[in-house]
Amino acid sequence: MGFLDALFGRGGAKKAPADAGIQRTVRCNRCGALINLRIDSRNDLSLNDEGTAFFVRKTLVDSTCFTRIELEMTFDLSRRETGCEVRGGTLEQ
Ligand SMILES: [Zn+2]
C-alpha cells in the first residue's frame, strides 16, 4: 500500500466495530404489550461483586398497562450472554 493510500486511508477496508448492541423483546404478562429494548454490551454491563461475571438489570414499563417488568441478564467475562431472567413479562426473542 502506497504512502498516499495510507495517507488517504484507501486500500485497507476498515472493519466496522462489531455491533455491541443486544436487542430483546419482552411481552408484558398482564396485557401482552411488546417492549423492545437494546442493551449495549460495552457500556451497560456491570461487574458483579466477585468480579467473576457481568450483569445488567433493566426495569421496563410498557405503555399500555404500565406494569413494571424487571429484566436481568448475565454475561461471562468475555461479555457472552449466560442467562436472562424476566419478572412480570416473557422474553419474546
Ligand atoms: Zn402491560
Structure description:
Helices cover 6% and strands 46% of the residues. The protein is mostly beta strands and 93 residues long. The strands form 2 sheets. It has a 4-stranded antiparallel beta sheet, with no helix packed on it. Strands 2-1-7 form a 3-stranded antiparallel beta sheet, with no helix packed on it. The radius of gyration is 19 Å and the shape is flat. It starts with a helix and ends with a strand. The structure holds zinc ion (ZN).
Essential attributes:
mainly beta; 93 residues; 1 helix; 4-stranded antiparallel beta sheet; single chain; binds zinc ion
Summed up:
The chain has one helix spanning 3-8; strands at residues 21-28, 34-40, 46-47, 54-61, 68-75, 81-87, 89-91.
Order of helices and strands: HEEEEEEE
Major sheet: 4 strands, antiparallel
Oligomer state of the chains in this structure: single chain
Number of helices: 1
What compounds are bound to the protein?
zinc ion
Helix-residue proportion: under 10%
Distance between the termini: 45 Å
- Structural class comes to mainly beta
Low-confidence spans: pLDDT under 50, at least 5 residues? none
Instruction: Kindly state the number of beta strands.
Output: 7
Shape: flat
Mean pLDDT: 86
Radius of gyration: 19 Å
Strand order, sheet with most strands: 3-4-5-6
Strand percentage = over 45%
Total individual domains: 1
